[in-house]
Design a protein that fits this description.
alpha+beta, disordered N terminus
Length: 277
Amino acid sequence: MITTLLLLLAAQSASEAPPAFDCSLVPGWSQQGEPRSYDSETLFDYMDGNSEGYFAYGFRVMKGVTCTSAGGDQLVIDVSELGDPTRAWGFFVTNRDARTPREPIGSGGQVLPRRATFAKGRYYVEIAASPDRDHRPALRAFVAALLLRVPGEARPPATIELFPAEGLDPESVRLVPQSVLGLRALRAGFVAEYAGGRALIAPEPSAAAAAATLAKLRERLGATPVAGLGDEAIAARDPYLGGLLLFRKGSHVAGVANVPEGRDARPLAKALAARLP
């Protein structure tokens, strides 16, 4: 009987088949020990206390298995179900090796000599290899097999395409799952680095919710109104965030922060506003 890596995951819809894997998906590999399963109560121990990052991205459950080859190599495979596809992508980006470009694996992925990670749908997959040598052929073989079985769309969040391309550091685009820029009013959003500052896009449930968020930011920052940008806009200077030019357009709060003294934030803010729906 085939031992599965992933059993039915929490909150799985009745119409969606659960992903099921075993080590023999790649020839020459077999399972070592029993499958693992962790929820929000038990993940802390497995991660040696480093579980808070998972919870920030809506962690629900992790399933895992260890695979070994006849030559003595080992792969530790863990698959986590996170809150939604956006947060799964965001978790991958946060945990990737920033020195190595992302690959078009799922909604985002990387294969390094001893580690492979990718996101697809609301799942985040991580594979750790040992001993210390280049395991990329085996890692890529397992990644290819798992990609066929992990449900969900294999594309990044559409919001990240709204950042203007000119001056953008594409590897800097990421999701902040709470308190964007350290501001509690911005509950979650995307940020990206530019030479003239840091751009942000924070989607809200409605235009009214976005207007309420901008009002909170105006009060928190002691900002002043600015005309001619989006539906409404504010400007401020903060000791930690530098110059800020924030605006609302429809159901989005967006803008530019960390603008150096004497630098004009308006060109980037206007380019961003033009791309928002």
